[in-house]
């Protein structure tokens, strides 16, 4: 198929990344553009059989300022303890499974001198960190499942994971277990990214690093995964990682 050059930009946008463009040049001028609609699989893409996704920032949108405001309404300044890629002190202890949710609430009351706060107050404020998963990302995961095995690896905690199980992945009658073959959570494994042990646990759980691509929004986590033999790519925020796949769900990077 050949197109006028004037239609080039429009065509690229419509066809997406799964297209090989063929530019035909006559007398030094680009006159026609054709395309090959086969999936644009690179050598690496052809070796990948398993996709390993981060949760926060890649699948679910985060709003740290909103969470900070919720805690501020309780008289607590959590800014030194919260980050987009990892938490500190008592929040990290929750995400690494060192303490339970009730113990976390006790620790927050003690740390900030707020004995009057209930567990529900504290949990509710922490829930404000997670915004939601857009339907287009869930649709993308379903397309990817036609071609790859999908798993999830996350630094998370029981509060946020309960939200995932109860609602964030509720879509078309499906739940989180319908999207992923394996789910690896820091608070269950007792270790957080980017510690080597968490990637070793993933490999021990059945994922072959040589055939697995890890998508995480933190480059330090990706680099740690590479050191353990995984393929890894830093996933842009806002769901732009979906551009790594063509419209049929084939990897094209």
What report would you give on this structure?
The chain has 253 residues and is of the alpha/beta class. It folds into three domains: 2-36, no CATH class; 43-61 and 133-244, 3-Layer(aba) Sandwich (Rossmann fold); 64-127, DNA polymerase, domain 1 (Orthogonal Bundle), CATH 1.10.150.240. The protein is built from twelve helices and ten strands. It has helices at residues 8-15, 43-47, 64-72, 90-95, 101-112, 119-127, 135-144, 158-168, 176-179, 186-189, 196-204, 219-227; strands spanning 2-4, 20-26, 29-36, 50-53, 61-62, 130-132, 149-154, 182-185, 212-216, 231-234. The strands form three sheets. Strands 8-7-4-9-10 form a five-stranded parallel beta sheet. The protein has a three-stranded antiparallel beta sheet with strand order 1-3-2, with no helix packed on it. The chain has a two-stranded antiparallel ribbon with strand order 5-6. It is globular and about 55 Å long. 30% of the residues are buried. The model is unreliable at 1-41 (pLDDT under 50).
Write the layout of secondary structure elements.
Layout: E1 2-4, H1 8-15, E2 20-26, E3 29-36, H2 43-47, E4 50-53, E5 61-62, H3 64-72, H4 90-95, H5 101-112, H6 119-127, E6 130-132, H7 135-144, E7 149-154, H8 158-168, H9 176-179, E8 182-185, H10 186-189, H11 196-204, E9 212-216, H12 219-227, E10 231-234
Parallel strand pairs: 4-7, 4-9, 7-8, 9-10
Antiparallel strand pairs: 1-3, 2-3, 5-6
Helix pairs in contact: 3-6
């Amino acid at each position: 198929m050949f197109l006028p050059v004037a239609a080039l930009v429009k065509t690229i946008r419509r066809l997406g990344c799964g297209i090989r463009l063929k530019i035909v040049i006559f007398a030094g001028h680009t006159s026609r553009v054709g395309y090959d609609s086969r999936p644009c699989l690179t050598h690496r893409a052809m070796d990948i059989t398993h996709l390993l996704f981060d949760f926060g920032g890649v699948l679910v949108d985060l709003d740290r300022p909103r969470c900070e405001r919720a805690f501020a309404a309780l008289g607590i300044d959590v800014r030194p303890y919260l980050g987009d890629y990892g938490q500190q002190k008592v929040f990290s202890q929750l995400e690494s499974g060192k303490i339970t949710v009730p113990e976390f609430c006790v620790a927050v009351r003690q740390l900030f001198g707020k004995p009057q706060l209930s567990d529900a107050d504290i949990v509710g404020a922490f829930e404000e960190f997670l915004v939601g998963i857009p339907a287009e990302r869930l649709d993308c995961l379903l397309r990817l499942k036609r071609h790859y095995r999908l798993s999830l690896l996350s630094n998370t905690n029981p509060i946020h994971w309960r939200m995932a199980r109860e609602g964030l992945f509720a879509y078309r009658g499906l739940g989180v277990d319908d999207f992923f073959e394996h789910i690896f959570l820091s608070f269950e494994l007792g270790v957080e990214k980017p510690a080597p042990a968490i990637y070793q646990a993933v490999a021990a759980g059945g994922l072959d690093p040589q055939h697995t691509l890890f998508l995480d929004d933190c480059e330090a986590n990706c680099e740690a995964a590479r050191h353990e033999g995984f393929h890894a790519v830093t996933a842009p925020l806002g769901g732009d990682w979906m551009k790594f796949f063509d419209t049929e769900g084939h990897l094209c990077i």
